[in-house]
TrEMBL record:
Keywords: Glycosidase, Hydrolase, Signal. It holds the Pfam family Glyco_hydro_28. SUPFAM superfamilies: Pectin lyase-like (SSF51126). One of its GO terms (biological process) is carbohydrate metabolic process. This is Glycosyl hydrolase family 28.
Amino acid sequence: MKHWIRVLSAVMLAAAMNLVHAADFSVAKYGAKADGKTLNTKAIQAAIDAAAKSGGTVVFPAGTYLTGSIFVKNGVTLNVGKGVTLLGSQDIKDYPVMPTRIAGIEMSWPAALVNVYKQSNAKIEGEGTIDGDGKVFWDSYWTLRKQYEPRGLRWASDYDAQRPRLIQVFDSKQVKLGGGLLLKRAGFWTVHICYSEEITVDGVTIRNNVGGLGPSTDGIDIDSSKKILVQHADIDVNDDALCMKAGRDSDGLRVARSTEDVIVRDSIIRAGAAGFTFGSETSGGFRNIEAYNITVEDKVPVGILFKSAHTRGGFGENIRLHDFKMNGTPVVLRVTMNWNPSYSYAEIPKDVKDVPPYWNVLATRVPKEQGMAQLRDVQIWNIKATGAKVAFEVDSFKEKPATRFAFKNLDIQAAQGGHINDVAAWTFEDTKLALDQPVRVENGDAVRGLPAGSFTVGPRAVKEDPSKKSFEEQDKT
């Protein structure tokens, strides 16, 4: 009898715990006001902290809630429901500075508006809006950059003009984001997933080109993370839309954490620097990445982009990109290993005093062999592109050519074929290229299967890119 009493007590306790777990915690009960003027950071955080004690859901009565950084805890669901807007403070002091990784290096940086920081089993969902109100941060960036560029400090402006991201998932596991959320006007990147595992982003609309064009307002950045699923994203931004990252230069090579086991699917890119991007932060490498059912519109200059630099290093392997539709996208495929030199290569002017520690990290030299990224074993198939200007712009390293790219069922209509330089074992199958000018292949017999008449073959390129040469000369001084 006592045994059954203990069993019944356990069942009743479990049921009671389930009821507690299902409880809602309204921010209104903790003093939050939906007037768009009152700073609600403490009230919202108090509701989150209360929900964390039992694994509950934080809810908001309809309205606009001004807030600084909030931190979603273990077991908590932050439900931003229909009719609710979380509006980011325009005061950078409302975003506490804390350790993170930003633009490829580990450093202290303002927290995001909404954070999942070293937590697990958390959710951010709903049909409401998270609005960074980021123009004040965009303007501060442009002001600083105009001061820095004449001094040869273009590379430093992105690190010194500290701006809050919209959502950060850092060193966390089993996190879900989506459910119809509208994410807009991020001060910096919109969704940054870093050092994390088992993360799902499902059903987000990102609109950063509202009230201006925000610099570096990336859509979804997956950074040295594993087991990631992104689906049903609708993105309009002013920089990388869907981007794989893995660290920058000496610091990224030190950390050496790859981005791997990622699936991105069923999404549309309306504006951005590229449809699907690897890099330029390639140092930790990419492995086992698949993207498919991606639509790229004409405001996006490049459909598929691999970008790195002479100092990045890293690798990309076992990559599968398929079922892309590009509607008027100017460049179908671009591979560049010398991306944006004024940003990619840090050199501290001699007249600068009081150098921040992270400047020294950025300026740490990387040996040439270690700095060359290696791309290999990439499959690209079922690509439909109409109205393109250029089909291919490929420039790899002679010493480490992009190797074993297999293309199948390409249907590309473009004014120019473009060029393919420094590759090895590239194959094309069932490829249809409607080109006004053929592809120039600068690597002898390394490419097989392009339709007759769609390409010309030249010797391995001997003319150096001026930007490459200037950097190599600079590196010797």
